[in-house]
Amino acid sequence: MNKLLKTKSVKFGVAAVVASSALSLSGCGETEAKGIAPELYTDSLFAVMKADRTNYTKYVVKRLGPNGANVIKPDEHWQDIENGTLLPAQMFRAGAEAVAEMTDQFTYSLQSKWPINSQNAPKTPVETEGLEYIAENPGENFYGEETLGDTKYFTAVYPDVAVSSACSSCHNDHKDSPKTDFKVGDVMGGVIIRVPLES
Amino acid sequence: MKKLLWLAWGVCSVMVAGYLGYKMTLDEDKAALLIGDASHGHFQIEMACESCHTDPFGGKEVLQGACVNCHQKELDDAHDSHPKKTFNDPRNADLLKIIDARYCISCHTEHQNEQTHDMGVTVAGDYCYYCHENVGDERPSHEGLAFDSCASAGCHNYHDNKALYESFLVEKSGGQWLKEVSRITKANSAAELVFEPVSPDENRATLITEKTKDHPDIFTHALAITHNKAGMDCGSCHLPPALGASDVSQQSWIDQPGVTECSVCHQKESDGFLASKHGVKLAQGLSAQVGTMVSEHSKLTFSDASQDTLHGCSTCHSSDVFAPSASGTDACLSCHVDEHSTNFEHSPHANIEENLKGSVHSASSEVTCATCHLPRLKEKKKGSDVVYVEHNQNLTLRPNEKMIRTVCMECHNLSFSIDALADESLIKSNFTGKPKAHVPSIDWALERTKEKE
Question: What pLDDT is attached to residue B185?
């Protein structure tokens, strides 16, 4: 896809941090009013998400959780537990929900063909196609377009990989997980980023 | 002729517009604008239009703001299972076309009393199905269950599942139906407050002496004794707390202190009361006469004698009797005469001390209506527990599973509590007997856990 993304977000500079870093990547000034390549925009958003997700897992859950200092308990029902804290997937969703309260210029979610929470299963044809593509082509991303409600979206799907044994073992042991043989390095699901396109 | 008709039409339109404009803006009596009776939850404040219609030209968003304004904290405390933020993602766009779950009014439409079900719900009972139709695939136990049975008593709630979620069911699956020691939380923390004495002031002292000279026996009254113990004098309640000692005058004396005065020390209790069915009219500045607080559609029955009673703190906390049974049972039963209430007197709860005599069980205090309906709850403040009496009777009542963790499980195990609250005839008899049916949710949860192991 080589056309340029003309979303309001880029034009009006919402999602400023990501957009500005993305613009500088593409050489701000040269492209001027032309906008930004959609892949570059979502790739940049994904970079921030992935960094935060990995850091939360590594520096908080692993360090302070049951496999580390054991002072916090990552749990689905963290609110109901003393010292409870969000699971990595819930932390990710909490971010997505907080973003949605601030802007409607992009949305994101974590999904999987083998979801613990069936609400995280693919719903739209593009989600299904994207999750299948990234599972079969490790290391690659998927980009597509779809119309949901009355709005057209640019939809990008990025692999979510089992970066440590904590990921795979928790999912394998979870009573709601339809897949029980995840290994470190496997694609466990995907991050889906949607940007509404100007109609 | 045609001209005349046009003229008549014009005059009529102007008159109607003028009438409606006057009603909407200047007239205090807005009854003519009601498009239908409000639900049982809101009918008490249906004439306080602005409490929900905060902007006369507002749409969905304005109404949502009003809902959230009163109910958001409750939803947060309940760990709402379906908060609005869950539905913002566009991948839910097709589902939102069926029910726009981002707005309260999609399921709780007001002024449609004739089609309002329990919990103020105005959609058909199979609303869960649209998003969870495949639940039978994941949970064989749920296969073939009726589409409108998800929210059946003891199974699931749309918002509050704090006592019903799977891992809680598993964790609390055991235990005897009646715990060995039935603990009733100690009295509220306001009792531990010590009032700062007001600096001696002649004016104030003279006024108090004058006002109380006709009540020489006042300190034989329980309410006065209790407050006096905390270092208070008559002026602490009868003179507005905001006034400095030397500001007092004849006019500043309050004959009957109300919520405003009580709330100075009993803040949480007053907040709860004003949010409850007992105080919501007061909160909106309306007269809280019992007769006007009861909807003709109410499922409850009330005594005729109570109809003129005005609601306020002292309605239940009268100055002369201060025992728990007085404010916590007698006061309730002076208005509430439905089956559940009138059966209390002979219920096992009312006679708990007698019932437990000679058994291994013991109770730490008597049980009153308020033990369950206005329970003593704990709140963490600066690391220690502060006990308060939750005066919002709704908070533990609708749906009644909300009572499980806050109240029932103080004395009973989870399984018994779920079953008892799901048994309507048992509720009517005020829990005289054992639950007739068993809700299998704990068994199913245990089974699934075992399968996985």
Answer: 65
